[in-house]
Amino acid sequence: MRSAQNKYFFSTLCCAVILYIHHISCIIVSYYVVSVAFMNFGPHVRCTNNMNNLVLSIVPKFTNLRVLTFRKKGEQPLLDDKSVETITNNCHDLEDLGLSMNSRLGDRSLYALARGCPNLTNLNISCCSAFSDHGLDFLSRYCRKLKILNLFGCYKAATNKALKAIGDNCRQLESINLGRCYEVGDAGVKNLAYGCPHLNVIDLSECFFITDESVIALANNCLYLRSLNLYYCVRITDRPMYALAHSRVKNKDEILWKSVKTQYEEEGLMNLNISQCKDLTLPAVHAICDSFPRTSYVPRYSQHAWLLEVNISPLRMCLSTASCHSPRLVRWMGSRYKSCVYSWFT
Fold first, then answer.
1. Are 170 and 194 within 8 A, CB to CB?
2. What's the angle, vertex CA 103, arms to CA 98 and CA 104, rounded to 5?
3. What's CA 172's distance to the chain center, in Å?
4. 129 SS3 class
5. Least CB-packed of 16, 40, 204, 338 within 10 Å?
6. CB atoms near residue 304 (< 10 Å)
7. What CA–CA distance (Å, rounded) separates 6 from 87?
8. pLDDT tens per residue across span 275-329
9. Could you tell me the CA-to-CA distances from 295 to 219, 242, 287, 299, 333 in Å, in that order?
């Protein structure tokens, strides 16, 4: 009896969902919700297969889709290449696509996206570890309108070769996540800096091969850089910190020549993560903080002021083992930049 009731409930729910999404141009397919619904049918049902079947049957009916996001919970891959090809064959106006955590997807999906969805501006393929740099190179040649690209964990795809192609072709790019892309080096980051002048958010966390040259190139060429994550970039030293500090003065002078700019665009770097950058010293951190004096007086919860967040919690420990700078740094930061030390002891 309970099993029959569950099946009836799920059928009714599916009908209601289909009737609802018929009137909208954005579908969010939630793996978590679907998996809970399928659990009622017994332990032998494979949710991944059902999700692929759902895509194959429903997506062709929504040719005007502009936003499509697949969300999953757990480690089981969600989609296969055939499903992505179905999407690209029917949704040519797609602008925003989320395919994160699908390790079964290969370059076949990237080729399909390149040919079928040239209007993509936001693509999230984080933790899709089977993609290669050749597939990403091919994608960049056709999807030239990309503004937001999440490659977190795509360590096979995000290489210097692929980043050169992105820098050459995706000149409107504003945000890129390269966290845990272990093959990324200075050559790739510099190609991004030279080719993507509108870049304002870049995550380089755990890119172990990048050096000062990468950050200096970003500081000198990306006028609107707002967020920079250098977590565990262990080869970074003081030089790029001074370059970033100097870039605020340089970039502000250049921006003021433009006719219409918001206050946000005049403020420069707002978020900087330099945790585990063990070679940084007190004067370099001092220079960064002095370049953004408003952060001394702005509460962290304020919604109306720009805030620089400097994550330097491990820096205290690293400096204290080498010199007596750490206690001075704590006192100096605590007295002048309270908003910057919220994670100092965490």
1. no
2. 100
3. 15
4. coil
5. 16
6. 5
7. 30
8. 999 999 989 988 888 886 543 222 333 333 334 555 554 443 333 333 333 344 4
9. 20, 18, 13, 8, 11
